[in-house]
Amino acid sequence: MDLPTPSPSPSPSPSDSPPPVNWDSLDALVLDFVRSDRLIAPSASPSPPSSPSSSTTTATSTSSSSPSTSTSSSYCSRILIRLARRALEAGDVDAALALLRAHAPAALLDHRLLFHLHKQRFVELVRRGTEADREAALDCLRTALAPCALDAYPEAYEEFKHILLVLIYDKDDQSSPVTNEWSIKRRFELAGLLSSILRAQLQAYDPILSMTLRYLISIHKVFCSRQGVSSPISDLTERLLFEDRDLPAVPQECSVEAPPFDEVDVQALAHAVELTRQGAVDSLKFAKGDLYQAFQNELCRMKMDLSLLDKLVHEYCVYRGIVEGCSHALPGTSDLKCSQNTDVSSINKQRANSETHLECEMADNQNGGCSTSDITYHDSWSKRIRKDRSSTSGQGRRKRWRGRSDDLNYACETPADGDREILSPSFDMDEDVLIQKQDLVADSVFSDTRDMQDQKYEVILEMRDLTRKGMASKVVDEINDIDPGFFTQNPVLLFQLKQVEFLKLVAGGDHVAALKVASSHLGPIAASNQALLKPLKETLVTLIQPSENVLTKAVSLPVLASSLQLAISRRLGIEEPQLMKIIRTTLHTHTEWFKLQMCKDHFDHFLKIDSLKEIDPSVSHSMSKAPTDECGNGSSQITTCSSGKVPDEGSSPQALSEVACDESAIIKVMEFLALPRADAIQLLMQYSGDAETVIQQIFS
């Protein structure tokens, strides 16, 4: 009898009403990323300035189940791995060996790895084809490859004899028995294997943000594939996360039986990173049973486009005010939108057109064209930007973008933070001095054009920061002064800001002024928007509540500030950073995926995913509660099996199916049938939760 095929449960599209995201938590992860990989210049003072993520520093704090903060040693090790990878991919095995001898000699004690390196070196020497290289290849056979083959691993000597065929079969002979050995693909496989081994040995794991993105995007792809829905961010995810992975590192010991790992850990790892059960067991063996280390090893095997990730992060950092704007990036820096231009001859013309261009740009966003009336309407924004151009308070609080450098000696000798700014080593000091002189000559006339985009960000960030501080009345007055039509198109934002103003007055005991705000603003806005009547009533109830913590309990200022930032940015023609789109969409599919799995993600706290979903810390406990029982390591926990749908948080017990699946039964079906958790539960539902009955269907 054939095993019944479980029918997939219906699920919403990944683009359907994704929930809000805690952007402060993402700020903290991004700041950890740029510091870990030294993408920003260090502070000029010993104590780092405050950042937008200061309220969520716990998002990157270490814990027993979280990745440790990257150290300077880890940073150098990651550069070493990248350089060794590039050398092998280019066929320069000697360069890779030299790097290992100088910076990671312990890696060469792994005879299995050493044998692979010498084998590839032999092939590359023969590939070059000169007489001298052929002599060097024979010397490699005698002095390095043959001795390694004796004790690398049981099959090594047979592989050694097979590789000798390279000497007599041409690399272009596609019918030869050593076609695979000649393949350029072998370089990349060996480079990936070396990266996996070094990463684990040196504990050189990528920053949390990088691993979190890998995990979320991989789940997003699986979700879209299994549910048959299209991804709204496929153009980004396909470019950012590649399909192929580095080869896994394998334990040196060749034990026949696997250690008695908890099957819950095996299944959690297998389905988190799409491994076979045996692959998960091997990964746990290599990590000596440490689930989270094995998880990191597997995540970092997923290949990412690092240059694209840097650009996405830079775009986000400028938008959120973490780093200075485009015109303040250090020489050699590039990003998605910005480019340095030092053509002094065209400066005067650009300066003359810059403000008109800004006004037309904003008019285009509103009316699709530029006219005299449009320019007059938006002239207040332009005046505000010109007024703020002389202010450096905002930029002074932010970091300067430095860009990525892969100079190993420079990285290991230069402290991660210090009293001087770090310049990219690709620029020598003479060139840097020349650029500084050019900037001094051009600054007085060119800054109008170069800084215009930055000044847009300054206005936006000022409004955001005032909102975060609860200065709602000032925000409303400022925006009405510079753009009277803004709140006409964004009435909900006006309601929320006036709600904050109302609550502050109530907290201060000025109930008369609070009622005036309610009758003048909150009431009329709610009258034209029925959805606001309920929050209006709840706001008015605070009049009879204790004044303590009225504001913090009722309103999330960071969420409101982020919403306002997004709205003003759109008004000024600034698009939302693409990293925000990726995070918002993949967090939504992450939630939907684990609804299908009917359990809590084992790794959401480890990768700070829970903090990204935590919108308001004051109600974090109730918001983070999973709709189903958490599936931990205990076998006594129960997962309720409904008719293919996960029960809502408010569902009554009578609405749930009477069939209950024991956690041990779920794990047993997953193990024996190699099924995803959701499919295992669906099958158990069909057989009253009896794992033995489900498994017997294969043999009946």
UniProtKB/TrEMBL annotation:
* UniProt region (Disordered), positions on chain: 1-24, 40-73, 620-654
Sequence ranges of Pro residues compositional bias:
1-21
Biased region (Polar residues) positions are 633-643
Matches recorded under PROSITE patterns: CTLH
- Superkingdom of origin: Eukaryota
Q: Where is the CTLH domain?
A: 85-133, 456-513
Biased composition range(s): Low complexity = 52-73
In Swiss-Prot or TrEMBL terms, this protein is called CTLH domain-containing protein
